[in-house]
Structure prediction request, 312 residues.
Amino acid sequence: MSERSRNLPRRSCHAVPGTSERFIAKAPTLGADMYFLDLEDSVPPADKEASRTRVAAAVREQDWGEAVLAVRVNAWDTRWTYGDVIEVVSAAGERLDELVLPKVQSPAEVAALDLLLTQVETNAGLPLGHIGIEAQIESARGLVNVEAICAASPRLESIVLGPLDLAASMGMPSQAGGMLIPEYPGDYFHYVFVKILMAGRASGLQVIDGPYVKVRDPEGLVETARRTQVLGYDGKWSVHPDQIPVINEIFSPTQEQFDRAKAILDAYEAATEGEQRKGALMLGEEMIDEASAKMARSLVSRGERSGPLRSA
Prediction:
């Protein structure tokens, strides 16, 4: 895995079609935490192979700043996967952080990509283990196997939900693909969200929500993003530039949350390291202890990676 990118923020993960030179050229200016140049769903079969050269050149030649930079290859059940990996990784250079592997159904698929990457890195003169992997869960079988998938390779950096394909795989009659359904008494995707989150966290991975495809519906985007943000997801895919600032804001701690977390850590440190040490104390009307400190550390870490500073 890429030591540079493993712990970088991924609030907004922006999809860039590998067929469009215009979209690729504009992408680094959009302010996303992560960009993935796509060779899969956004590229028609006739353009798959030609897009590899375009994508590798963009990785190598454009200035992507500190953003996480990835390429989504085609799934193992197609005829393009090995060619995508060999041609793109060989030509892209060290700026490529990871590959996104779609439609992962078993840990063997992640292991196969790991083995192929080792050979490609060796032949391309890249550091062994440099390229990380993001696995995309898009089927009922993938969801059943998600715990094993998340533990399948040390190259794994993140796990991401593909809601539309997953809903289709499960035979859902609705075309909502993860969006709320007014007729359903609850959140019908809640089990999916939590199962993927727990599997990812158990293996130390970042966990990312999939895209909201109604690009002209900012209210729906906010509502959908909040569902996974409150559970603890690290970010969400975006498919339109206008979605990026909305997602960045939702998946960043507020200034009030950040300041409160810092206050908890200061108070807990003072209480546990002073002469009259104690394991729990009152901060205002709230009792805080080690569990409170763990939650505060997580929030502070996320805040410091995404920008907030403590108020004066």
About this structure: The longest helix spans residues 255-273. The two ends are 38 Å apart (CA to CA). The chain has a mean pLDDT of 90. Residues 30 and 168 are 31 Å apart (CA to CA).
